[in-house]
Design brief:
four-stranded mixed beta sheet, two-stranded antiparallel sheet, binds iron/sulfur cluster, alpha+beta, about 270 residues, 10 helices, Alpha-Beta Plaits
Length: about 270
């Protein structure tokens, strides 16, 4: 069996052991009690070194050289998660998207940085912070941190106050100003092809990347990673397991995180 496959089966076992079975994960997604799914409600005050902590590494240059691959990752994510396309940048809903290097790492750039980095498109998503300010800001616990480190959402609990959006320093959350199940003025649906296996949202609800919780629960990789993995452009796994592929990648390659000085401890790393 290939090492990557072994890594992932191990990871799937860890997710299952954390009590995040397919049914319970969907209970949460569909509005069931998160505690019933064995999920922790409170964010850690410091970075976790015990238990499972899922994370991702993204190779910036692999994607910069292959924008078609980046688009396929975005399409895979948005189509399976019923992310609406409002065809209007003001109302845009983003789970995975491209942003210029200098915007993604705005506070971490310096005046003598290589011009080669300027303007590079960088794939951006929720960082699943180990110390997530969005969780603390949410008054209804619609946003919560799970035992495996994933910052999840219970759409049915969201009252649309957008405190989480104000608290997130990464712009990783989007608000549905319009009904995602609706159509534009030409009658075209905002969700091109509804995936019946994943809930769609309603107007007034916030959403973001969920690290593909529902796929992990059935032993699959996150959709974007599945597309990118054959190109060694994305890696996913348990950051606390020294033998996982992502831990090896982080040991061997130089990586950066977004705004580490904020103390949010992002679980997404960028290889540059
Ligand atoms: S990136 Fe933003 S939305 Fe995601 S966990 Fe961190 S603070 Fe929350
Ligand atoms: S908008 Fe929803 S998820 Fe965000 S803080 Fe308010 S209730 Fe929580
Ligand atoms: S991990 Fe899943 S939800 Fe997050 S960006 Fe990738 S495909 Fe989308």
């Amino acid at each position: 069996m290939k090492k990557d496959r072994r890594d992932f089966l191990k990871l799937a076992g860890v997710v299952a052991a954390a009590g995040i079975g397919a049914t319970s994960a969907f209970q949460s997604l569909l509005g069931g009690e998160a505690e019933a799914a064995g999920l922790a409600r409170v964010g850690a005050a410091k970075k976790s070194t015990d238990g499972t902590r899922l994370g991702m590494a993204i190779d910036i240059r692999k994607f910069a050289d292959n924008q078609e691959l980046a688009q396929r990752c975005i399409e895979a994510c948005h189509s399976i998660h019923n992310v609406p396309d409002f065809r209007n940048s003001k109302d845009e809903i983003k789970w995975l998207w491209n942003e210029k290097f200098e915007n993604v790492f705005a506070k971490d750039t310096h005046t003598r940085q290589s011009p080669a980095l300027q303007g590079l498109p960088v794939l951006t998503l929720c960082n699943h912070c180990d110390n997530p300010p969005c969780v603390r800001a949410c008054p209804t616990k619609a946003t919560f941190k799970k035992d495996d480190g994933i910052v999840g959402m219970d759409y049915h609990r969201c009252i649309g106050c957008r405190f989480c959006m104000a608290a997130c320093p990464y712009g990783a959350r989007s608000f549905n100003w319009r009904d995602p199940r609706g159509t534009d003025d030409k009658g075209r649906p905002f969700i091109r092809e509804l995936n019946q296996k994943y809930p769609s949202r309603t107007r007034g609800v916030v959403e973001k990347c969920n690290f593909c919780t529902e796929r992990l629960a059935v032993g699959e990789l996150p959709a974007c990673v599945e597309v990118a993995a054959p190109h060694d452009a994305m890696f996913f796994g348990d950051l606390n397991d020294p033998n996982s592929k992502i831990s090896r990648v982080l040991r061997e390659k130089f990586t950066i995180q977004r705004r580490p000085s904020l103390g949010t401890y992002p679980s997404v790393f960028y290889i540059i």
